[in-house]
Amino acid sequence: MIHGLASHGVTARHLAALLGVSESGYYAWRARTPFPRALRRAWLTRLILDIHQESGSVFGYRRVMQELGRRYGIDVGHTTVEAVMKGAGIRGRAGRPHEQAPPEGAGTPGRRWVVDVLAVTTVQGPVYAAVVLDTVSRRLVGWSTAAAAHRTLVHRALMAAVTRAEHAEPAARAGGESLPGCSFTERAGSLQCAPVHAAVGDWYDHAVVGAFWDGVHRDLHGPSPWPDRQSAEGRLGEIFDRFAARAPAAPPAPPPTP
Known about the structure:
alpha+beta; Nucleotidyltransferase, domain 5; 11 helices; elongated
């Protein structure tokens, strides 16, 4: 709360005095690295604020919850949405949403991440890798590996992407710019790693994912199958670190028209 109001020109010292907290405590909090749960909460709050604003401040928590699922594939309870809205000082009201164009960039690749899950074979069993790709830069922004495919695997990859985005673009986050929404590949959905009612990626998303894995397989030199999960995960980590540091790639060509 202090951080948000201070960004509008009100001094942190004055706000801390009004709220009965120490100014030094506020600055110590600001210097700390946010925990993944806090980052997810901040991301969810930003998305909820965007949805509420786009509705002309009409949507209540139930409709906001529906939009989170429809647009971003986020499966969250109404009590959480209600609590976030209450904490942000917003609420629904009677009326109809404004008829307006979607926000600039809402329908472009730059406003979305795509999530995929793929298995690498080892003698001990498969290693599953969840990756989060930015669809405009085609850069790897988050990943996670595990011995089983489940939503926790994807959750860890998304939290890594959120953390990277928060650290890479602090000015944009402080200015209120929202993090991208997410779509999921059909493969992630078939492995039951995608949220219920998750948005399924389009041809562009799947082309970005396909090109990414082609590059990974070219670099994934080693025995087939790998002798153990640890060596496979170690090699994947090396490749993912290198891919995350690469310059943005050219966009994929559109599919041929029939």
